[in-house]
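Below is a filled-in request sheet from our internal design queue. Each sheet records the structural input a requester submitted and the sequence that came back. We keep these sheets so that new team members can see what a complete request looks like end to end.

REQUESTER: design group, bay 2
PRIORITY: normal
MODE: inverse folding
CHAIN LENGTH: 255
BACKBONE (tokenized):
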């Protein structure tokens, strides 16, 4: 092809047809420019396709992470709710608006204070994207904003969880005194004979006296308030944030 064009140029020059040669030269330049533009367009298309595939891979991975994070948070909300709702039942016993047997009290105490609360989301892909600077590969600026602020959102929840844990420990400390019996609770729930492989206590000490103390009641009420605040002011907003992120991701995947 190049030899063909070279022969045409040589013939036009030898025949002294300068005007035709000039038109031919301009046409050849135009063809070269068009060829370059086509090559650039193809290259840009390939790069855009690669970026779109990479973004889709990120979005699908993030969707999976946040779906798991949502399930974890929903389970934790239920555990926290179980704790403070059972604690409310203890208040009813303290107020003597409800008579209760020792076995039932042991079950309520166990359900109120045996579960530690700590949200632990899976952020492996999100952290990788942030640390590597690949988060810029997410084209939606609103989604990037929510993903960037996710860690600070979770940290505020952890601060509240520490406060809730401290209140829980205040109550558990009371059960380490002579006025209470952890053994009674574990015996009634058959934890000592089951998981621990121990014989039941020969003499059972009642926990009705410890829950009747003003110190226990004060700590219990603070624990209930902190548990409710953890759900309403922290867990529910975090759940809403997860749902917002998932909705943004799903919208991007549809495009």
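RETURNED SEQUENCE:
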């Amino acid at each position: 092809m190049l030899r063909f064009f070279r022969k045409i140029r040589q013939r036009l020059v030898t025949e002294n047809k300068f005007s035709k040669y000039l038109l031919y030269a301009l046409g050849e330049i135009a063809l070269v420019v068009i060829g370059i533009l086509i090559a650039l367009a193809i290259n840009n298309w390939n790069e855009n396709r690669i970026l779109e595939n990479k973004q889709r891979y990120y979005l699908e991975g993030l969707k999976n992470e946040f779906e798991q994070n949502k399930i974890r948070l929903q389970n934790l909300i239920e555990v926290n709710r179980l704790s403070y709702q059972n604690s409310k039942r203890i208040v009813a016993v303290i107020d003597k608006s409800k008579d209760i047997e020792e076995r039932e009290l042991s079950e309520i105490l166990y359900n109120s204070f045996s579960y530690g609360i700590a949200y632990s989301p899976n952020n492996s892909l999100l952290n990788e994207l942030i640390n590597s600077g690949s988060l810029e590969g997410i084209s939606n600026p609103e989604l990037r904003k929510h993903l960037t602020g996710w860690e600070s959102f979770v940290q505020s929840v952890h601060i509240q969880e520490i406060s809730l844990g401290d209140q829980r420990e205040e109550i558990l400390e009371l059960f380490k005194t002579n006025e209470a019996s952890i053994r009674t609770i574990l015996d009634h729930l058959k934890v000592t004979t089951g998981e621990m492989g121990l014989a039941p206590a020969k003499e059972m000490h009642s926990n009705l006296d410890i829950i009747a103390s003003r110190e226990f009641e004060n700590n219990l009420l603070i624990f209930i308030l902190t548990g409710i605040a953890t759900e309403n002011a922290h867990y529910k907003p975090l759940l809403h944030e997860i749902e917002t992120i998932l909705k943004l991701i799903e919208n991007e995947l549809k495009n």
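SHEET NOTES:
- The first helix runs from residue 2 to 14.
- The mean pLDDT is 86.
FILED BY: M.R.
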